[in-house]
Amino acid sequence: MMAANDIHALEAVFIPEADNHRAYRNALGSFTTGVTVVTAMTADGPIGMTVNSFASVSLDPPLVLWSPAKSSSRYGAFTGARHFAIHVLSADQDHLSAAFTRGGSGFDGIDVRFNDEGVPVLPGTLARFECAEQAQHDAGDHTIIIGKVLRVAHRQGEPLCFSGGRFGRFAV
């Protein structure tokens, strides 16, 4: 076992600035997250985006959040959407994650349905939160979108995880 002094000696302490952007991203990557795909309907059709900035906000009322980057080509479509769905991916659904990243194939070849609000939903994900936009908050180079959860779909399974720039599984 390492002594406390040895552990502190391994830390790199810095102020996050433009010249150490990569070090800051690496530090953030130490926090393992789940992987989600957020979908919405636009005047041009359905859109989706792979996102790991998802969190629960409140149980009563049921609120969740996610944060699209302002630099995303899909940013305006999502901030303009009044309804959206957040899909939590299972460990065997990395193909869905890839489909909705920049340059991905999107909905091509993917089973998609539409909920009562017209939002595209992906059946069979680990969990799905169908939401109405509750609020938006400016947050630097992102916007925090808070949704009121209207419906939930859930099944048992193992989540897809993202840590240190890589996808993986949770090991017990």
Number of helices: 4
Query: What separation lies between the terminal Cα atoms?
Result: 21 Å
> Can you list the strand order of the major beta sheet?
3-2-6-9-10-5-4
CATH topology assignment: Pnp Oxidase, Chain A
Radius of gyration: 18 Å
CATH architecture: Roll
Name of the CATH first level: Mainly Beta
| Average pLDDT number | 91
Structural class: mainly beta
Please tell me about this protein's structure.
One of its GO terms (molecular function) is FMN binding. The chain is mainly beta and 172 residues long. It has one domain (34-169): Electron Transport, Fmn-binding Protein, Chain A (Pnp Oxidase, Chain A, Roll). It contains four helices and twelve strands; from the N terminus they run ααβββββαβαββββββ. It has helices spanning 4-9, 21-28, 75-79, 94-99, and strands spanning 33-34, 36-42, 45-51, 54-58, 63-66, 83-88, 113-114, 120-121, 127-139, 142-154, 160-163, 166-169. The strands form three sheets. The chain has a seven-stranded antiparallel beta sheet with strand order 3-2-6-9-10-5-4. The chain has a three-stranded antiparallel beta sheet with strand order 1-11-12, with no helix packed on it. A two-stranded antiparallel sheet has the order 7-8.
Main features:
seven-stranded antiparallel sheet, 40% strand, Flavin reductase (DIM6/NTAB) family NADH-FMN oxidoreductase RutF, 4 helices, Split_barrel_FMN-bd, three-stranded antiparallel sheet, 172 residues, Pnp Oxidase, Chain A, mainly beta, 12 strands, single chain, Flavin_Rdtase-like_dom
